[in-house]
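Technical note accompanying the year-one report. For the benefit of new consortium partners, we illustrate the data format agreed upon in the data management plan: each record pairs a sequence with a structure-token string. No post-processing was applied to the example shown here.
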Amino acid sequence: MYQGFIFITGLQISFTMFKIIASVALLALSVNGAIQFTRTVEKIAPGGSGDVVIGNNACTQKDQYGSNDCTLDWGQSYPITYNLSFPAPITAGHTISLQAKVEGLPLTINCAACGQKCEFKIPVIGKDVSIDLPPCPIQNQYNSTTINLDKDPVPLKVSVSGSGQLKDQSGNTVDSISFTCTIAPNGMEMQAISEQ
């Protein structure tokens, strides 16, 4: 499931950042057990661009970066098309930094952007996550895929918010994104993110 979520959160910060944010930010809206998320692109490197579109009417908004305000139901499949352009390849010196709050508990993740594993534990649900990062270098990407969501893999409602950055070899922020999300098991109704 985490491999599919690489594309959901939104843009071209890098496939790795998408995987990490998505692993932390599985979320839900006013439906019976779904994943709901919104994202805001804070910064894109000059010369970079990204467009990630989620199909099956999962999202209510679209901007220059693709789909936003999305609700994905457990047990369903969603086609995703992405077109990511980087001004320069992402190499072994690039890093991913994520600062989030999971039900108010802090979570900080710092990993290489490619070529290694990124491992961390999600607070509240105690989920260990290990993500095989793509090989370096990461070049421009255009493709489509389908993600298949498991049927109700979470035992309780979890809310997550935070931001993530892709940093270059000197530690300068190249791209950044902020996100808000919630996740709930089937049968649990919740308020929309905008009402929380």
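Partners are asked to follow this layout when depositing records. DSSP finds two helices and twelve strands in the chain.
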